[in-house]
């Protein structure tokens, strides 16, 4: 069930949805609880229509669920599709760790040399 | 030094670069070692020019370093900017874990009910 949920919303759509600061800020807001489209648009200097387009990109990636409550649309966070993105990135962890280890060695050698002087 | 490296290549550029299956496949190839532009293009049914455009997107995100060796361009993986993306996603881990826990509970209840029947 979980796997199917993730496959439906491909990595392309997830990473595309995350490639925009406004959409990332909307997700951060939704991590505090459900919000209406108006609430989500409010912190940004943008029309409801523009905010709605961003929310559509998030919905297409499966990251946001929109429900109609009376006259307002309530949006909730759906974090599950992010899991596939995080898993993809995890494979590269050893590469940036190698890089960090190399930087640390360089800094240590540098501080040893300075102490000797 | 590491922080500056990451800040220069914003999350927008990193997630945008990752939002394409061809570019993700190129990064997977580069994780095995440096490759020429021709090598990177070969598995895909695309021109060198098209492959070069994808590599440019990866370079702009700081994920690939291109060096000229004689007449060929050698590309190497630079995984460090992915770290910021992984860190961003890490904040949402608890949300997809909550969801997974809830699914697990549902499945357990379901199997208990079946056993009783």
Automatic annotation (TrEMBL), chains A, B:
UniProt-listed PROSITE patterns: HTH_ARSR_2
HTH arsR-type domain ranges (all copies): 3-107
GO molecular function annotation: DNA-binding transcription factor activity
Signal peptide boundaries: none
CDD domains in the cross-refs: HTH_ARSR
PANTHER family to which the protein is assigned, alphabetical: SLL0088 PROTEIN (PTHR38600:SF2), TRANSCRIPTIONAL REGULATORY PROTEIN (PTHR38600)
Protein name (record): Metalloregulator ArsR/SmtB family transcription factor
Species the sequence originates in: Noviluteimonas gilva
UniProt lineage: Bacteria, Pseudomonadati, Pseudomonadota, Gammaproteobacteria, Lysobacterales
């Amino acid at each position: 069930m979980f796997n199917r949920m993730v496959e439906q919303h491909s990595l392309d759509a997830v990473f595309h949805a995350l490639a925009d600061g406004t959409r990332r800020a909307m997700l951060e807001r939704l991590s505090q609880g459900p919000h209406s489209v108006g609430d989500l648009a409010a912190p940004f200097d943008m029309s409801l229509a523009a905010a709605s387009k961003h929310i559509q990109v998030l919905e297409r990636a499966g990251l946001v669920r929109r429900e109609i409550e009376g006259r307002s649309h309530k949006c909730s966070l759906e974090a599950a599709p992010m899991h596939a993105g995080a898993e993809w990135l995890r494979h590269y962890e050893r590469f940036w760790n190698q890089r960090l280890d190399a930087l640390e060695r360089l800094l240590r050698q540098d501080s040893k040399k300075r102490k000797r002087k």
